[in-house]
TrEMBL record:
Bilayer-crossing regions: 12-35
Signal peptide range in chain numbering: none
Glycosyltransferase subfamily 4-like N-terminal domain: residues covered: 96-276
Organism annotation: Linum tenue
Protein name in the entry: Glycosyltransferase subfamily 4-like N-terminal domain-containing protein
ATP-binding recorded as keyword: no
Entry-linked InterPro entries: Glyco_trans_4-like_N (IPR028098)
């Protein structure tokens, strides 16, 4: 029957079309997978294009860094009352790591209108006069004498917290920078987040490096043997904190995998630095070079900044440069190193000779911003695997390429590919090889990498980005148990 035959034909044709459609869908999906992973296939960057506008993400169980998401710059949906516990509140510009993070983040949150209460150590008599004052009425300090070991006195700060919590509006969220608030006090608080700036498991890598670099005359450190028990100890007590913020993708992975903290309680928020201060400005860079007498014939200006101590890898850098200068006349003519900061290695660097190095001394933030603009590449040979170094982020936002030791926080979150710079092992040979490569690549290549760094920096490492992510986390965990507000834990791109 012709009618049935026709229907058969139509049916076959439809099947054929459907198969073609199915096959092409499958192949385009696999192409997209292939395409995504043909670049640096980092876990934080494997989001499929169609996920961008698709259904909401549950932020609490989101595994990659929140910095990859974009949060609204509009005023927050509600103003929070936030408690911060931090061992020491820094003086404006002289602060590294944890204290810098505390300062940048919480001043920014206060500027967003939140009510901030900082529980911290009172200044010592010697620097009493210099405890900073801020013009904001929503930023409050609760000072106390630290214990002899330098920790916050837990009984006192707890009492201060209770008093503030019960006599006026209760706190929406409690944030502690590392063990500012000890786990014994933190254990029953569900609206609490702790930010780790270095955990013992990461420090094992540091200990291994230190042991490998130890000269035969130096006594063996006990740190290495003791560190593993410290890790076990941390695995036990970290559980007591409700929410954990890791400052690198690697630390997030370790907290979930080694420390066995449930995924919905581990959140990765990478550090951010002030993008208003650290930005490209070639005029400032040129002025800086003139002011400090960098000779015009130098075609490669290396820069280092921070505390000039052994832990930051200065013995390695010193030896690598010394050897390159002695072995290679062209390298010696072309290259100069600018070193900002102070510490025991400031004096030793001068032995490299005036033509190859300028020791700048400590710089404040404004000078430091000019310093980044004066250099061609920023070098960070740190031996410390824990935490996430701010200097690399500052250099990147200034549009400069970076080179650093191959530790997991850096290779996993910062220098994730050759387009941003160079990584090396913490040995003189490996550092020499990387420095030679930088010199061979030359300024043009470095400028291109610097542009890639600036783009990544703007995308991930601004103080604004970090603040927005923490604000969202705090909004989310402050609503725990409140169904009407749970939406703040959902993210729609
Ligand atoms: C620090 O200065 C304040 C007033 O600014 C004063 O009340 C306090 O006693 C001083 N503390 C010390 C330890 O000198
Ligand atoms: C603060 O007060 C609220 C309301 O009374 C209470 O639920 C909360 O547990 C208190 N927080 C702390 C840290 O004591
Ligand atoms: C936390 O809760 C447990 C059990 O409810 C209780 O025994 C303990 O004393 C509480 N700890 C603190 C610091 O409040």
């Amino acid at each position: 029957m012709p009618v049935a035959k026709d229907q058969m034909a139509i049916f076959r044709f439809r099947c054929f079309c459907f198969t073609i459609l199915l096959l092409s869908t499958i192949s385009s999906i696999s192409f997209l997978f292939w395409y995504q992973c043909s670049g640096p296939c980092n876990s934080s960057e494997t989001q499929m294009p169609w996920q961008k506008q698709s259904q909401a993400i549950n932020l609490l169980s989101h595994a990659s860094a929140w910095n990859h998401l974009s949060f609204s710059a509009q005023p927050p949906p509600k103003l929070l009352k936030v408690a911060l516990f931090v061992k020491k509140w820094p003086h404006r510009s002289h602060a590294g790591g944890l204290e810098r993070h505390a300062l940048t983040l919480h001043l920014a949150l206060a500027r967003r209108g939140h009510e901030l209460h900082v529980f911290t150590a009172s200044p010592t008599a010697a620097n009493n006069a210099s405890f900073p004052r801020y013009p904001m009425t929503n930023l409050h300090f609760h000072l106390s004498q630290p214990t002899s070991a330098g920790y916050l006195d837990q009984a006192i700060v707890w009492k201060q917290l209770q008093l503030q919590n019960s006599t006026s509006r209760p706190f929406d969220v409690i944030h502690t920078e590392s063990v500012g608030l000890l786990h014994t006090r933190a254990r029953n608080l569900t609206n609490l987040a702790v930010t780790w700036h270095g955990i013992a498991y990461e420090t094992v890598h540091t200990d291994i490096i230190q042991e490998l670099l130890r000269s035969p005359e130096e006594p063996q450190s006990y740190a290495l043997a003791e560190r593993v028990m410290k890790v076990v100890d941390e695995v036990r007590f970290f559980q007591n904190y409700a929410h954990h913020v890791a400052t690198s993708d690697h630390a997030g992975d370790v907290l979930r995998r080694i420390y066995m903290i449930p995924v919905e309680r581990v959140h990765v928020i990478l550090n951010g630095v002030d993008e208003e201060i650290f930005k490209p400005d070639s005029v400032k860079g040129m002025e800086f070079k003139r002011k400090f007498g960098v000779p015009g014939r130098k075609t490669l200006v290396l820069g280092m900044a921070g505390r000039l101590v052994k832990d930051k890898g200065h013995p390695l850098m010193f030896e690598a440069l010394k050897q390159l200068i002695a072995e290679n006349g062209a390298f010696r003519n072309d290259v100069i190193l600018l070193v900002a900061g102070d510490g025991p290695w400031a004096a030793r660097y001068k032995d490299l000779g005036a033509g190859s190095i300028i020791v700048l001394g400590p710089l404040d933030h404004v000078q430091l911003a000019s310093f980044y603009n004066a250099i061609d590449i920023f070098v960070n040979p740190t031996l410390r695997a824990q935490g996430l170094d701010h200097t690399l982020l500052e250099a990147m936002l200034s549009g400069k390429p970076v080179m650093a030791t191959r530790v997991a926080s850096i290779t996993g979150s910062v220098i994730v590919g050759g387009e941003m710079g160079y990584t090396f092992s913490p040995t003189v040979a490996s550092l020499k090889k990387a420095l030679s490569k930088v010199w061979e690549d030359g300024r043009e290549v470095l400028e291109k990498k610097g542009e890639a760094c600036r783009q990544r920096g703007l995308q991930l490492f601004t103080a604004t980005k970090m603040t927005a992510a923490y604000e969202r986390l705090f909004l989310c965990i402050s609503t725990a148990g409140n169904r009407d507000e749970q939406d703040l834990c959902q993210y729609r791109g």
